[in-house]
Design brief:
Helix content: 25-40%
Oligomer: single chain
Strand order of the largest sheet: 4-10-9-8-7-5-6
Bound molecules: pyridoxal-5'-phosphate
Number of strands: 17
Number of helices: 14
Structural class: alpha/beta
């Protein structure tokens, strides 16, 4: 049986067992998940009470008792302040920020103000802030634009095994242009050893990219230490080595002070911290060599051409300021929930593995493996209960490959496939955690009682 079908049939059997579904025929119901109307409402995480509704065939369906969004590492809802700030730039203030008339100057002013706000959070100059189309573009621009600018001085890049694919694939792509990449491995908690990075530096190294916090397992990397060691080695060699960090998952929880971190480039993505999708930020220290990947009208001081996404930029800056201001309180809140969720899972479900570092981890990240089962059926079963989370497989690829991050920390492929990630947000509550703890053990137990999906392959 194809893998997807096997997963769907497992989920059908979860339905069959579920007391709410009312009998064995429930398993015959198509598993196409139709977003209920309330999902189109911006405040996705609105609680809904248990009510009956009808599915597409007119069969009565029971809505989950609760909606619990725990996939904030995937994306976050736009915060109301950012949304309000953006609205005028979609309607009345629609001018192109590059034009010279008054209407356009309103847009220019808005972009300049947004840049100043971002610069204050990053502790840098406004001119060192570049707006992009997202975290992926910021990472690509940093890795490729930095390496290409220094290709006369060397052809070696260093990164870590747990980076986001936006960095890893950018490094791989550079190999087609004569660059070589050293991928530094991590320990079993996902930590990069700064000395291992320093040891990997050669007389050809031009760029080092290590993320601030991992998107899957939440492990926080010693970027400050890595940057200091690399810079010391670069100084000793009398050469430039650019240090970049992907801070996409760190925003809202960790300090983004680029001076303190000692990095030359830092990537952010607005939709991870309450801003809109499709807007990124790239900090680029003044004087850092850079080969622009996107050329055209010369916007962003020739470093990233294209008409500015004014509403998006305004929303990104507003959200970043708020996320940074609330950082300590938000971290305390989600860390408490995270610890309750981890303790609750470990107490209620036998044979659970926690992925990531026990302490040096993002306060909102819970990543666990349930050996013996697949993550996807659990995920789909949770979805039917109104809980939105994520799994340890690269579902964007049809093959459902186990996550490269879980593989890098030494999880065997079958254990990696049986992993779940919950990433909490400030709107989550203790009741949400209790609800997850109410529905999850049952799902895991049922799936563990079923034959493994390997049998279907
Ligand atoms: C660590 C990390 N880097 C980069 C990205 C890409 O960001 P974007 O979705 O804005 O392209 C993500 C998105 O999940 C991420 O988690």
């Amino acid at each position: 049986m194809p893998r997807q079908c096997a997963i769907r049939s497992s989920t059908a059997r979860i339905l069959e067992w579920s007391p709410e579904t009312g009998g064995p025929n429930a398993s015959l119901r198509p598993l196409t998940i139709v977003p209920p109307p309330f999902l189109t409402f911006p405040m996705l995480y609105l609680r809904v009470s248990a009510t009956s509704r009808e599915d597409q065939k007119g069969m009565p369906m029971t809505q989950p008792a609760r909606m619990v969004y725990t996939d904030h590492a995937a994306t976050t809802p736009v915060c109301p302040e950012a949304l309000q700030a953006m609205l005028p730039y979609f309607s009345t203030l629609y001018g192109n920020a590059s034009s010279i008339y008054t209407l356009a100057q309103e847009s220019r002013k808005a972009v300049d103000t947004a840049r100043e706000k971002v610069a204050r959070v990053l502790n840098c100059r406004p001119s060192e802030v570049i707006f992009t189309s997202g975290g992926t573009e910021s990472d690509n621009a940093a890795v490729k634009g930095g390496a290409l600018a220094l290709k006369q001085t060397g052809n070696h890049i260093i990164t870590s095994a747990v980076e986001h694919h936006a960095v890893l694939h950018a490094c791989q792509q550079m190999e087609q242009f004569g660059f070589a990449t050293t991928v530094v491995s991590v320990d079993k908690s996902g930590l990069v050893d700064p000395d291992a990075v320093a040891r990997a530096v050669t007389g050809q190294t031009v760029l080092v990219s290590v993320m601030l916090a991992n998107n899957e397992i939440g492990t926080i990397q010693p970027v400050e230490e890595i940057a200091a060691l690399v810079k010391a080695e670069a100084k000793r060699q009398g050469r430039t080595i650019i240090v970049h960090t992907d801070a996409v998952q760190a925003a809202g929880y960790l300090s983004l002070d680029v001076r303190k971190l000692g990095v030359d480039m830092l990537s952010l993505s607005a939709h991870k911290f309450g801003g809109p999708k499709g807007v990124g930020i790239l900090y680029m220290r003044r004087g850092v060599p850079f080969f622009p990947l996107i050329v055209g009208g010369g916007q962003e001081r020739e470093r990233r051409s294209g008409t500015e996404n004014v509403p998006g930029i305004v929303g990104a800056a507003e959200a970043l300021v708020l996320a940074d201001k609330d950082r300590d309180a938000a971290s305390r809140h989600v860390a408490k929930l995270r610890d309750q969720l981890i303790a609750g899972i470990q107490a209620r479900i036998p044979n659970v593995l926690l992925n990531g570092h026990p302490e040096k981890r993002l306060p909102n990240n819970v990543n666990v493996s349930f050996p013996g089962i697949e993550g996807e059926p659990v995920l789909l079963g949770l979805d039917l209960k109104g809980v939105f989370a994520s799994s340890g497989s690269a579902c964007s690829t049809a093959s459902l490959e186990p996550s490269h991050v879980l593989t890098a920390i030494g999880r065997p492929a079958d254990v990696a496939r049986g992993s779940l990630r919950f990433t909490l947000g400030h709107e989550n509550s203790e009741e949400d955690v209790q609800y997850i703890l109410q529905v999850l053990p049952d799902l895991v137990q049922k799936l563990r009682g079923m034959p493994s999906l390997a049998a279907h392959r």
